[in-house]
């Protein structure tokens, strides 16, 4: 009876020890799993947050840098275009300030010395294409390459000239359609025309000067030598009558990005010297021409920046994946270096208890 009881007790103890050992193994496996999950979660969270922070920072800085560089570059181009137009105005002032011209415009007799003056101005400057002058007395003078001139009464009925003559402006630049020119022209391209009131020494308006200037030369200031700078997007001219022209003066419909931007452009923005519109494709810059209601539209493509950002994103993903794999290996080794000694110690304690 005593032996049976002793064997029973020994069997119960062995079962308890075996159960305790299994529980210990389960505890160690659970601890190992929890340790790996916690460490990997921290590493994954750190990699994701740091990568997002780096990417967003670079994205914002790249966009801001592109904005600043594009404004600096195109702003200088705009200044060069303004200098060109001021130079043309100075050339025109040699005619409008000429006392002989004032006298001829107030006289009813035709002055044969005026056309040579106009032709001399054209021959001295390649960018002046032709010149026409109207006097209040009804006299009309033009360079030799102009024919079929409208009368001053007909010219005054054209909307652009009517608006100019009734304004306080003394001069203005207008990108004119062929139908609005003061002489017959079958060329469908629009012309860049400088319109100026001829004022004598007594501050009295004696006539009107119209000077046709090379539009392509003016628009060339806004072109970039490097075609990649604008992403191979051309520049456009937005006229006072809402027509959209290319650099040659031909009317066309630009790509949807610029078109939608210009459609959203308000009258208030149109009166500003420079307007910036941010789009998904890049930055649309609108520069108002010197002494004009016409504007230049330039699209600075965002594709080069997007390409660099895609490369950065892929690099961050690759580096993040490498870091996760590296830390996974390190965490496994760390877990073994901590748990294996504990397991050995636990086994020795069990073995000692069994003895």
What does this entry look like structurally?
The chain is rod-shaped and about 150 Å long. Strand 6 and strand 7 form a beta hairpin. A five-stranded antiparallel beta sheet has the order 2-1-5-4-3, with helices on both faces. It has a five-stranded antiparallel beta sheet with strand order 7-6-10-9-8, sandwiched between helices. The chain has helices at residues 2-96, 99-106, 114-124, 152-157, 159-166, 215-220, 256-264, 267-270, 303-354; strands spanning 128-135, 140-142, 171-176, 191-199, 205-213, 236-238, 244-245, 274-279, 282-288, 295-301. The chain starts with a helix and ends with a helix. It is of the alpha+beta class. The mean pLDDT is 80.
In brief:
By secondary structure, this protein is α+β, with helices and mostly antiparallel strands.
Name the features.
355 residues; alpha+beta; five-stranded antiparallel sheet; 10 strands; 56% helix; rod-shaped
Q: Structural class, from helix and strand content?
A: alpha+beta
Mean pLDDT across all residues, rounded? Answer: 80
**Principal-axis shape:** rod-shaped
* Helical content (DSSP H or I, runs of 4+): 55-70%
Question: Tell me about the biggest sheet?
Answer: 5 strands, antiparallel
The CA-CA distance between the termini, in Å, is 25 Å
Compute the gyration radius: what is it?
41 Å
